[in-house]
Amino acid sequence: MNAGSVAVVVPEGFGVPSWDLYELSIPCTVFGKAQPDLADPWYDLRLCSTGELQQDGSPPGAGLSLSTPYGLDDLVGADTVIVPSVPDPCVDEGRPLPPALITALRRAYEGGARMVSLCTGAFALAEAGLLDGRRATAHWMHTAQLAERFPKVRVDDSVLYVDDGDVLTSAGLTAGLDLCLHLVRRDLGAHVANQLARRMVVPAHRPGGQAQFVDLSVPTTDDGSLAPVLDWARAHLDQPLTVEDLARRAAMSPRTLHRRLRAATGATPLQWLLNQRLARAQSLLESTDLPIEKVGELSGLGTANNFRHHFLRQIGVSPGSYRRAFPRAVPASLPSVPGSRPPGEGSGRPPAAPRRPPRTSSAGA
Q1: Compositional bias (Low complexity) at which positions (predicted)?
Q2: For residue range 237-284, what is the model confidence (pLDDT) as tens digits?
Q3: Element (H, E) at 297
């Protein structure tokens, strides 16, 4: 087992936005501080800048400027190369990355380096052609753009990270920490990774994938004519609903409803219904103490067993694990759903005093 050298790409040519500092700090924290009691030698970390300051000394583009003695030439020869993120214009506007960076990434890979991306760093590996034909991931807010721009990449938006041997990719933000700890586990063993996680006060391994963090509640639709039937369906999720019911309510044939809903939301009517039921279940798990059986009933997912089956399959964790990951804070008012009632109503006793929310450490993708 060997730690080796880790080269981290710093997109200096665009400046480093404060938002991207999180992903940049993760490999610095995991690989940059020596842990001689766990493994000696530890990793040799290098921050490699992609550009230079302007002639007046100011950083090009918005964001922070980091001073480092290493450049793109130092990527070549590193054991592991990590791209924590790429600038927003490269994701949102399709702006190309510096050709010198793409060349350096290809040279590093051809030289035998293990290539890693965190969050939107996958766009850099994809632009270099290193993800062609591979399964890969990124932050769930950007996976659709990644798949559209690079059709040769098999994008998986449900996982925290993908280990494809010599090329690894992670979802956004804290999922990058999951992947970096996974790298330590691969290089130095489970004991070292577990002890390092304990020192960082994070789980050594989180259950499920990033599907549990995706917002299913808001559909993507520009078809205003469907709004009334979709609103009606959301108000009746606790009742049995079929495609025929929705089509009848919308005054159109089931085939027409299927075509128009698919065009507006990207989902079939049945998938749309399932997503809305799951979103309702997530909201109830986060904001109430209702039993699992009642949550399944109010969200229209049926019995506790049926509810658990669909939730685990689509979200990636059990309802109980999800509730523990998103503990209930005291809301101003509980969500209005059929069959629910405020605490104490109808019980013959006053509502219980609000509980202090438990102190937890939250994790996000």
Answers
A1: 335-350
A2: 999 999 999 999 989 999 998 888 877 766 788 988 998 898 888 888
A3: helix 292-298
Give CATH superfamily name and number for 224-325. Homeodomain-like (1.10.10.60)
Cis before 17? omega within 30: no
Q: How far is CA 143 from the centre of its chain?
A: 9
Is the pTM higher than 0.85? Answer: no
Cβ neighbours for 325, distance < 8 A, ≥ 6 positions apart? 212, 317, 362, 363
Alpha carbons 18 and 2: distance in angstroms, whole number: 33
Name the phi and psi angles at 47, rounded to 5.
-95, 120
Task: Locate 130 and state its tokens.
Answer: 């290193």
- DSSP lists the bridge partners of residue 65 as none
DSSP letter, residue 4: -
Containing H/E element for 116?
A: strand 114-117
- Are 153 and 204 in contact by the 8 Å Cβ rule? The answer is no
Domain boundaries, the chain: 5-213, 224-325
Instruction: Give residue for tokens 């753009």.
Output: 145
Tokens of residue 68, six digits: 């480092």
The C-alpha R_g of the chain, in whole angstroms, comes to 24
Cα–Cα distance, 6 to 30 (Å, whole number): 11
Q: Is the peptide bond before 357 cis (omega within 30 degrees of 0)?
A: no
Determine the 3-state secondary structure of 99 from DSSP.
helix
Do you know the residue count of the chain?
Answer: 365
DSSP-derived pairing of the beta strands 114-117 and 154-155? unpaired
Q: Which fold has domain 5-213?
A: Rossmann fold (3.40.50)
Q: Which helix (H) or strand (E) holds 108?
A: helix 99-110
| Coil vs helix vs strand at 8 | strand
Count of alpha carbons within 13 angstroms of residue 187, beta-carbon side: 24
